[in-house]
Amino acid sequence: YDTPSCADGRQTIVHLFEWKWTDIAQECERFLADAGFCAVQVSPPMEHAVVEENGYPWWQRYQPVSYKLESRSGNRQQFIDMVQRCNAVGVRIIVDAVVNHMTGLGRSGQGSGGSSFNADNRDFPGVPYSSLDFTPRSMCPSADGNINNYNDVNEVRNCYLVGLTDLYGAKDYVRQMISGYYNDLVEIGVMGFRVDAAKHMWPKDLEAIQGLTHDLNTNAGFPSGQRPFFFHEVIDQGGEPITVDQYFSVGRTTEFRFGKKIAWGINDFSQLANIYDPGWGMAPSDKALVFVDNHDNQRGHGGAGDIITFKQPKEYKMGVSFSLAHDYGFMRIMSSYYFDDSDQGPPGSNNGGSTDDVPINADGSCGGGWVCEHRWNPITQMVKFRNAVAGTQMANWYQEGDNVAFSRGDKGFFAMSKYGSFDKTLQTGLPAGQYCELISHCANKVTVNGDGTARIIINNSEEPIFAICAGCDG
Ligand code: AAO
Hints:
- GO terms for molecular function: alpha-amylase activity; metal ion binding.
- Its cofactor is Ca(2+); chloride.
- By secondary structure, the protein is α/β, with parallel strands linked by helices.
- It has helices at 21-35, 76-88, 153-158, 172-188, 203-211, 256-267, 313-325, 377-388, and strands at 12-16, 39-42, 92-97, 101-104, 108-110, 116-118, 164-166, 192-195, 229-232, 252-254, 288-290, 330-335, 394-400, 403-408, 412-417, 421-427, 433-436, 445-448, 453-459, 465-469.
- The longest helix is centred in the middle third of the chain and has 17 residues, at 172-188.
- The two termini are 34 Å apart.
- It binds acarbose derived hexasaccharide.
């Protein structure tokens, strides 16, 4: 479950948070394929609650009403069209799967696809689920039925996460409904799943659900016998009894400590060494899904604190570039929209709860309130670097004050200088020759000498990043 079936050995996924299916299809064709992205993580595609009283927030999409593919991002036909068009250009789709729970208590009415529901009665006819399909109250040890104490494993996995009606994953029927949802998506041609709130599910239930899930669809271009890619959202920053290793048998886990360490390291470059800290319980590289920030912690939800986001563009470019140059984990890039308030939905949502298109400016940046970090020059260029150096290890580590550099085997060399002025001859590990510097799109040409050394010059205060790789032409 932990090997993504990327086309052509591609190495990076991008979360196009709250984008519509029609825009994602276009982005695959006009940008992501050429830029070398493996896949897009899409917002939850199932029918969700419509929370008008909070101005149609982004988080309404984490309250499932049914598994019909009818969401704010588009309908079933649009979803299928997106998957087919992205697959056709070698870009895969990863679904954000919200299967731990249904909507919050107190909610009722109609979902985004028109299905009726009543959470207090545990009635979701669009699936259908009834009161028999939710975790029995007697199994939850907390006084109010919610999760208050993260030190009690039974409470975290059997009680309600912020009042969200908790599905009983031990039940065969529930497992069948969830795997039925997965199989529908696999048949359509998706490559994998981010399992939302996996920390709140028992690993043995996840194992059973995944066991019922089909191999990837060969008609969508996947090799036969290939299992879907699964990564589990488990917030483990040490200090709680639920740890990432409990999920290694069912796939990869989100590694929240990585983003924290990147933020610390960008603040103080001496902390950029040993980003992977096994002593802190971090997942080994082949089990880790890594990211600098995510849709929660960029706005103060789940596990926030000590992270950098698009709101500090220069630091963010450095943090993401360093992460892409590094050899640890499988990497996800965040692609956001601008917001002032942490509930705020995507551009257009204040206008009746729909979503605006993503307009592309003449210079390739996005307009209309969309940030599109994945189109920021150093980030796009470093995605190419990561593809080019895949499979190599870090070597020739150099760090002195506010400057850092390292090589990736004999395939690539990366350097970064906090204040954008650096001039030093370093060992690059590369074969002798002329190389194109990637961030400058080959405006800077670099000569690697016969002994592998090269004079590394950085002279750019906004994008103080340097990268060369074998076979990279800018
Ligand atoms: C909304 C409303 C609620 C309402 C509810 C039901 O906001 O007021 O009660 O509806 O009607 C998202 C939003 C929620 C929203 C929900 C449903 O974030 O605000 O609730 O949709 O619409 C925990 C979980 C983790 C979860 C995270 C938010 O473990 O799985 O909370 N993330 C996912 C999604 C997220 C989504 C859901 C789950 C639900 O990514 O977008 O919620 O589908 C500790 C624990 C963590 C815990 C956090 C936050 O973290 O360890 O497990 O995450 O607390 O409660 C330090 C520590 C760190 C600690 C952190 C606390 O950093 O090191 O361990 O502090 O911030």
